Amino acid sequence: MPKHRPTIADIARRAGVSKVAVSYALNDRPGVSPATRATIKAIAQEIGWRPNSAARALTHARADTVGLALSRPARLLGVEPFFMELISGIETELSARGCALLLQVVTDPAQELEAYRRWWGEGRVDGVFVADVRSPDPRIEGVAELGMPAVVIGHPSAAGSLTPVWSDDSAALRDTLTYLSALGHRSVARVAGLPELTHTRLRDHAQHEISAELGLDAPVVVHTDYSGEEGAHATRQLISSRSRPTAVVYDNDIMAVAGLSVAQEMGLDVPGDLSLVAWDDSQLSRVVRPPLTALSRDIPAYGTHAARTLLTMVTEGAAPGFQDVTARLVPRGSTAPPRSAQTPPRSEQAAPPR
């Protein structure tokens, strides 16, 4: 067995054939007999030969790699469970199919599109995922023009001609607001994510529409960058306002945990004075006290479905869009009927006489 990385030349020497014949055999192309093909493949397995991905890319063979570029701060990716769970689901499907994920964090959507152009031009990927879709989003048309397989992790309304994999956020929000309304809440605010993201805008629209249908007060929506710091700041704003809401829905669990901490710091009882709901369940939501009511879904499965759709496009040329399961509301200790408006929260009650 050669001491260097095994090559086609090593196989050709062992089999007593030309390198062209070896190439034909290993790529299952006509030009060699079945017996010679079997001999060459047996020698390749014996000496541990593996195809060179760069060489395969140059000959337009599949790279067995798909790409994902994200224009979010790396510090947020490290603490936000959603993307870590999504990527774990993607990796589960890819590894089972002998594929790899090329992941890059970039500073803005323009850099994302440039990364996709470079990867596709260099033959480094067979397709890509497009996440955090914006309105408008030049990446959609740019990726479509490249003609490479691509899956949009987002609503079909923003996917253009690309294939979407999505979940119905409007239905999840309707379940949440209906539940809070049944508890007696009339003022429900939301600490939302980035305002330019399509799914944020869809949630904003759905919240105003559903609130009106249910007879709730017009909602106050505060947009943030999804970080715990901004989630805490938004919560302080809401709690300190003259028309303090009796319930708050957060667009991720990190902000919900930060909001719970702020509410307790400011002397409010959760859920007596303020009910809290986290969008996307996680271990964080379950270990705090009280545990957070949350919109729960199988995020790794969401990633798996996105990867499966993309790989189908790579191998078969096309794939239908996929609507994943709607997030399910899981009530826990952070939600309850609101106290009477005549009963002020502990922080506003008069101090006992000395």
From TrEMBL:
It comes from the Bacteria. SMART domains: HTH_LACI (SM00354). Gene3D superfamilies: 3.40.50.2300, lambda repressor-like DNA-binding domains (1.10.260.40). The keyword Cell membrane does not apply. Residues 6-60 form the HTH lacI-type domain. GO terms for molecular function: DNA-binding transcription factor activity; transcription cis-regulatory region binding. It holds the Pfam family LacI. Residues 330-354 are annotated as: Disordered. The keyword Transcription applies. PROSITE patterns: HTH_LACI_1, HTH_LACI_2. Keywords: DNA-binding, Transcription, Transcription regulation. SUPFAM superfamilies: lambda repressor-like DNA-binding domains, Periplasmic binding protein-like I. This is LacI family DNA-binding transcriptional regulator. It comes from Streptomyces finlayi.
